[in-house]
Specification:
Chains A, B, C, D: Keywords: Isomerase, Manganese, Metal-binding. Four copies of one chain form a homotetramer. Chain A has helices spanning 7-14, 18-34, 39-47, 77-91, 108-118, 153-173, 194-210, 237-247, 266-276, 301-314, 316-321, 336-355, 359-367, 371-383, 387-396, 403-410, 412-419; strands at 53-54, 96-98, 121-122, 125-126, 177-180, 185-186, 217-221, 231-232, 251-256, 279-284, 324-327. By secondary structure, the first copy, chain A, is of the alpha/beta class. In chain A, strands 4-5-7-9-10-11 form a six-stranded parallel beta sheet. A three-stranded parallel beta sheet of chain A has the order 1-2-3, covered by helices on one side. In chain A, strand 9, helix 9 (266-276) and strand 10 form a beta-alpha-beta unit. In chain A, helix 10 crosses helix 12. The first copy, chain A, is globular, with a radius of gyration of 22 Å. Chains in contact: A-B, A-C, A-D, B-C, B-D, C-D. At the A-B interface, helix 7, helix 8, helix 9, helix 10 and helix 13 of A face helix 6, helix 7, helix 8, helix 9 and helix 12 of B.
Chain lengths: 431, 431, 431, 431
């Protein structure tokens, strides 16, 4: 049997919860009916919304201070895929996995076979030039002082080659996009020439882009700081946009919700990128201070809703953009499987709430500068308790009404804890 | 005599200070000589650097809570020009004034004559669509809900016409640029459609741009927030850049140092805009929290230096860009004349320090990733006490060695306090 | 008739909405029942929760750039009380008004009579030493360089006397507390001696405290910045706490939600102040960037919920503290009456949601370090759509089911617009 | 000879630089003389100022993403002490080392002997309960969910015992203080009860304090966030102060310059803590975004100067407080020895500049509210290029005029690189 979650378990879990769900769903449906909205139509839209999970997300994350592993940590990509299958089996929102090379390097045929057996597909590929890979004979040079923007052409070449290798693996397993995030930057004013570093980055990115298969996209991901603490080469959406324009039609901007300066209006950046046609996708997570990589919707759920409000507002332009939705989180104190199930659900919650905004009324109030009614109309969507819709979407797709409870009931974690001995040594957490 | 500062006063002020200045200048010159730098060449470069003062800056500023006017506040543009002349006579760094319409509206011929008599010129013009102008028959509509991005085409038209009138006045007095800063935005999520507001803004800006004289430039000035507190239409350099690209060859981005999110690396934005060829100019000031509009170099002098480091680094590309350097500050607790004299001096200080960086050594260390020596080489410029260079540049141009002391000795403030009765009523401060 | 809202209007408004409310209330009640919670008990707790409105809040606010008044602005404290009565008649959550002296200065007997006729009481008094009051013969000295912390003892004395006069007015009208917020601080490093300024402030506050009636409290309100832009004398809760300790048993700390540094965890400050027994009260509002003074719950509703979670968690300690709940907002683009109705409702919403958290379960998960279930248990309260509870509480107290709709239907704004001619001149907005 | 830096090397390095230093020192002396200041007196004060280096600072730091070790990394505390000796031999500003237990655990007699041989002493001890120590039989329990504030009394007890063990080691080697920094907090709202966690922390800290030798102090170190990303138990100076008060006379607050919210006025916190008598010491470093742990004075040198301005202003109160000055940095891209030499020098630079402020003039301008002259008087100190004073202080103490150049000339790094094989494996960087 491909996945560890047997369908009988899910059925047994759902059975006693069905009646209450049906009642709550009916009640909410009646409420929406009054507003002229068909709940089933919304449920279908929600059910069609998928978000990819990151292979590295099923391991426990950490900080530069420490990493505290949990029991049953996956020891390699195949065990990670097992965990991802559990997430999708229960939550039915995450049918694709985003790989990270070289961490997940394996025979592509094996990867593909395993994923197919588990009912999973592969989303965007992620390269890694922010760590050294001393055991990889193809990466002998250090990225201590940069990768794609390094002053030394040989290091840039190595980083380009690594990205192309990542693309090649991705091509073999059915991925269609490469996400490039680099840690390049500087810790001290003067350490790096801000202009020349960007030119070098653009040059290297052009080489990668030239090496992409015809039907691939490349995502440039910006980040304000960390690991570089004075300047970062791709520091904000402005630089990410300049990059995407320079690289041409295959290049798009990826928005990670935790990579912005304090107080920044992220949903407005989404709106701007939609307009330019360069919105490539998202790395979802939540944060209060920096790139905290917390579970989506746990710090500022209204902000997540506002991002989805822009996406729903974008309408047909969004269909053309077809953004790549991914989670990128660091699970330091929770069971990673549970956090990913929850986060996918929160993302769908924000989407459902955005779908339920009375958009015609909203536009009318906006046109009339009725700030009060426009604001209230938008919040009316957010205030709705849409959990019945989310549960129904899961249920109808074969998932669990309460997926975290079902996961706990499954005994999966205890089982793999027995099978996967703890890795000795911890150190700072790479995420 | 055109200006209130008689040259005898300056000479009397300078006389007892000359010897010490000469000694300090010689000492610094000898020190620079050791590094192979000619102090006189640097002094000449500094002397050639001018920064415009804002006409509104010579009045006392305020906050939304209160404005506390000082004695002798100028009552109109002609008295403001008198004050600006004092600033330039003493500091010799600010030969041009930036006007704000409708505040400074007057017969262009009179403006020109007055300025010429005072030895002043006019820099970029500033329009004002963030306040209502109920006494102006050409501006009957309110900007409460926006101006160039308003949902009502009639308001947008009014705002466009106002900008074109501002250009017309500027053309008559020898200005060559229009700075457009709008307060448009929203206070509540949903109040405004983020995408449509930007489209309307672009449409209006295109009309203004079409109305520009052939040799004019238009500057788009971004600001993160205030007066709008949820979203601002031109919120960051990314949106400002999109605007400048859309508007074409005459359009450029203006960077106000106080209009960014917390922690943002402003000098990197300067570097990016230099690269795109869209850096239009600066509004200098300093800030710790928000758009505090404090005197340049008083909160973070190293940051100001780093901005000038990028400008010096830009080299010949900067000559092509020919940025417009302006001060934009709110003087709430100091004599505005003194604050503007000081700020111009601080700006020149940062420029002088940036000129004194051993750039060949810096580039070498950057190339070799010697973060320590690169950082120290840059800071070596900043650590230099270049006051003798600044004083010498003033002195040789006919200004005061210690311009604030000379101003205080001049009795100018007491004189105008007698001539200019205090305006009744204060209220919040418009700046 | 005391208030402009006739009870017939409210009944006519409620009639067609009652059935739906009853159904939604019953549905929610049944849902809560399943969790062992009695909806009526919660509704009673919510109904007992009152928050004071600020007299200045019924006028249109503004920024330093502009103020755009709306129609029918109240011209004095008696018209302001009329507006406050409308807010309370419709929303039934705001039975008390917080006055601001000297803005609201009037014969105390008249104030009391008017309030009684309108069914209103008076909450904490607010003094004003952040503006000059040139027409007040008792306040001839300027606060430009500070008030209670001014270097000049005569200015401090004047400020102390003003506070004592404010207390005297408050005593005559039944208030029991004085809120002291000062704008004292500095714009430049060095302008003010940070230590001596605080000593002077403490000295002046002690004089005020000595002058308090026996049953009064004094609230120290901190703020990070604005109007001072380099340092503020009472900059954070730490300094506010030092103040309250130094002043003794009558002194407490007031928390304004918009007066903190970016990213600060406000609910934790509430928790700390609860522990010290020095939590005095709140100024509710919401903000994204600085002290934006936006409507409560419009920017980050989850944060407001978390503040109330701490208050509910405080349990009996809160009864002892008996905090003063007030709104402090600036209504720049909405009808102030509508914003205050909405804000009071949002505050009650956060309270209701906090009451609905399964606290026993929460504590159990916390004790077991089950981060996932603890987090989900807390969010389960927030996710509930408690609008039926809020509406029911209003309805049973004689208010409107949809108070903003009822206000619009009342024609009140049009009526007062006809009675209250617009005040000429706007300028920056004092709020 | 105990240290690797032979005194001949330093003399050979200094010889060709002496003449220039003498000239620059004389010139600066003459300049200060004009202001009535004796340069030699300042040099003596600077020479008397020492700052401790952290033992962990001589290893390469890292981020959660990666650590890029440099050559010759010390493999244990004895090699770390060798490196610390080099720093002090060349810079003559860092005669004491701050140890971190269990990282630096060794026989106290050996530690003491080694330090004495190298001319070093031991400053405050640091405990570590933010990482697990699975190989330490006395620390079998995990700190994943906290240490001194853990819900489980057994974990708290273990953490207390570890702190007491750290004190015992410190006592044996002549230390007189314990710095307690914990990573305790939570990543999700609800995960931890904010109030109870603080109570548990206080309880545990009291036990540690009770175990302190009579002449010891304990420092409570606050931090806004990281490794906890929603709440931190000791999140700001307010909570640190509450802690120090609760613990009594031996407890003080330690200020790390990188542990504050964005935009916070750190020098004002120093001023407040001086007033309360609870300022215990500093962890110096610099930062732009978060706890970046960069070299002191490299991001905002003016801020560092303002901190020292408060210390100089504190006068005799500071003598009574006798703060502990330590560096706490993470050296990710520089040679750690060079960074520590530089940072100590920058700290002394700020001190020297603060000493050179004309304090009588400053106080006069403050008293008169002459914001301009007060601000300029303060900045006049900062603008001075005091490098000759710093170099002279080093030279006279037997150190190097240009200590980084001397270090490079010494060949020390190459030598130890040969002796200390690289440690296999890197991972995230613990700092």
């Amino acid at each position: 049997m491909p996945s560890s979650i047997d369908s009988g378990l899910i059925e047994r879990h759902n059975a006693p919860l069905r009646e209450t769900l049906d009642r709550d769903y009916a009640t909410l449906g009646e409420k929406l009916d009054r507003r002229g909205v068909s709940i089933d139509a919304v449920t279908r839209q929600v059910a069609a919304f998928a978000v990819a999970v990151p292979s590295w997300g099923v391991g426990t994350g950490g900080t530069r201070f420490a990493r505290f592993p949990g029991p049953g940590e996956p020891r390699g990509i195949f065990e990670k895929l097992d965990d991802c299958a559990v997430i999708n089996d229960l939550g039915r929102a995450t049918p694709a996995v985003s790989l990270h090379i070289p961490w997940d390097k394996a025979d592509p045929a094996d990867l593909k076979a395993k994923a197919e057996a588990l009912g999973l597909a592969f989303d965007a590929m992620n390269s890694n030039t922010f760590q050294d890979h001393p055991d990889d004979p193809r990466q002998p040079l250090s990225y201590k002082f940069g990768s794609l923007s390094h002053t030394d052409a040989a290091v840039r070449r190595q980083a380009v080659e690594h990205n192309l290798e990542t693309v090649a693996i991705g091509e073999a397993i059915g991925s269609k996009a490469l996400t490039v995030w680099i840690g390049d930057g500087s810790n001290f004013a003067g350490q790096s020439d801000l202009g020349r570093a960007f030119e070098r980055y653009l040059g290297a990115m052009k080489e990668i882009t030239r090496g992409l298969p015809a039907d691939w996209r490349i995502f440039s991901e910006h980040k304000m700081y960390e690991p570089a603490f004075y300047s970062t080469v791709v520091q904000d959406w402005g630089t990410s946009y300049l990059t995407a324009v320079e690289l041409g039609d295959k290049a798009f901007c990826l928005v990670d919700l935790g990579h912005h300066a304090p107080n920044v209006n992220i949903e407005q950046i989404v709106s701007r990128l939609v307009r330019t046609g360069k919105l490539g996708g998202f790395h979802f997570n939540d944060s209060k201070y920096g790139d905290d990589d917390l579970d989506a919707g746990t710090i500022d759920p209204f902000r997540l809703f506002l991002v989805f409000n822009e996406l729903v507002e974008a309408g047909v332009r969004l269909d053309a953009l077809n953004p790549s939705y991914m989670i990128d989180q660091s699970h330091n104190v929770t069971d990673p499987i549970e956090s990913l199930i929850r986060s996918a659900n929160e993302i769908r919650r924000a989407y459902a709430q955005a779908l339920l905004v009375d958009r015609a009324a909203l536009h009318g109030h906006q046109e009339n500068n009725d700030a009060m009614m426009a604001s209230e109309t938008l919040k009316a969507g957010f205030r709705l308790d849409v959990e019945p819709i989310l549960a129904k979407a899961r249920l109808e797709a074969g998932g669990a009404i309460d997926p975290i409870a079902a996961f706990r009931a499954s005994g999966y974690r205890a089982k793999v804890a027995g099978e996967r001995p703890a890795v000795k040594g911890s150190g700072g957490g790479i995420v």
